[in-house]
Design brief:
The chain has 27 helices and no strands. α5 runs antiparallel to α13, α12 runs antiparallel to α21 and α25 packs antiparallel against α26. Helices cover 76% and strands 0% of the residues. The two termini are 29 Å apart. The chain is an all-alpha fold and 490 residues long.
Length: 490
Amino acid sequence: MKLNLFSCITNSDEKKSEKAYSYDVNKQHGSQALQFIAAISACISGIGFGACETWTSPALPYLKSKKSEFPVSVVQGSWIASLFSLGGIFGYLIYPLLVNRIGRKNSLLLFSLPQIIGWMTTIFAKNYITLYISRVISGIGYCSSLGLLVIYLGEIADKDIRGILLFIIKISYDIGILVVAVAGAFLSYNKMNCVMLTLPIFFLATFLFMPETPYYYLLRGNDKMAIKSLMKLQGFKNSDQVKVEIERMKLATHDENLHKENSLWKLFKHRKHRKALMIALCADITKVFSGYFAILTYTQTIFQYNKSSLDPKYATIIMVVVKIISGLIASQLIDSVGRRILVIFSGIFASISLGIVGTFYYLQYLRVDFLPMISWLPLFGLTCFEVFCAFGVSPMPFVLLGELFPTDVKGPATACVTIITEFLLFIVTFGFEVLNKAEGIYTSFWIYTVCCFIGSITLFFVMPETKGRNLEEIQHILMEKRKSPKTPAL
């Protein structure tokens, strides 16, 4: 153990004091405060992502009304809702080209510019074509930032808080949904858009002062800056206090620096990376086909179907507030309860909630007499769905992308997963209202029910348990061919 700890020390006098030094290092503790501060600052872009993606929930009812300066049709509204995902595909193709060249931090700062341009285009839009353009530009900016967030937080975090920091992405996304829901309920359409513009500006003003990740510096061969960055992130003042961690990081980046293989080729060349890619895809596809994004995109429209006495915009706020609270509770469990247990629990109960909503709308289609007495059921069912998703279905794609891949393939892996996800999301979002008109809204919810149930069970059996394990341990598990992952006891 001590040989590994001091393998980088060659001076004989230092070797003599090895025991005393080991004791001092073990007794000294740094601080994780800056890791949390950097994560919160970075996730301001996550707030903007949530607000922009679900902006259509309050915006489309207005744009389809006679109050709009340029009323849009149902089909035009579907394009406005889904083109964000199309822009996201381009964003996910672009950012891997920059992440290892200009750094994680600089890439995040760069992609805040299309976010600002997208909101400014929305503010000054005079027709639906301009909104199409703004949604594509915004998709490029925000989806690129999302992929970068996963990389950035995964690389600055100590392993004991990595799950919590990655979970902040999900919480920030939920806060963004609440921000746009509240702004849409209490502000005019134009003022709501102006509030949204302040989010990327605020991100620029704060994240500019955050550190770059030590992994990036190691990839560039700059050990001095890597040590400085890690000392800053872990709250240490002596470089000796981070030597062991730096050596571990250097091993993780060794293959990248030594062989210089194409990262995309390496992703598909090695079995462990292919396996990780399939697991991450399974998590994302489950989330998409559970209707998670479609429900958030058309929340107010969905509540208008059941003709409840509660205004859809207020029902949306209630649902999002409960969603955020449940997300905060779930964040306390992500690093104490196994990921696999959370996935199976979340998926089963989320699918039951979707089934309840689908059954209500089917009974409404049959014009059952007692239905007005339970008009609150869609709000109850969708709120339960969001609560249960918060414990596994929703955050797990972020967590797995941050944990399953080593730094040299994390960029292309995240890009591959998210490009496929955004393409499927484009289809699901665009087809939501089309399917509702053709087969009824209950059909959509029953499809989501089946997909959520099957997807979560599949994910439970294929994913390894990553709780409390560092990158090297996770890679070892992925290389195992027959041994199935064990779920740790609670």
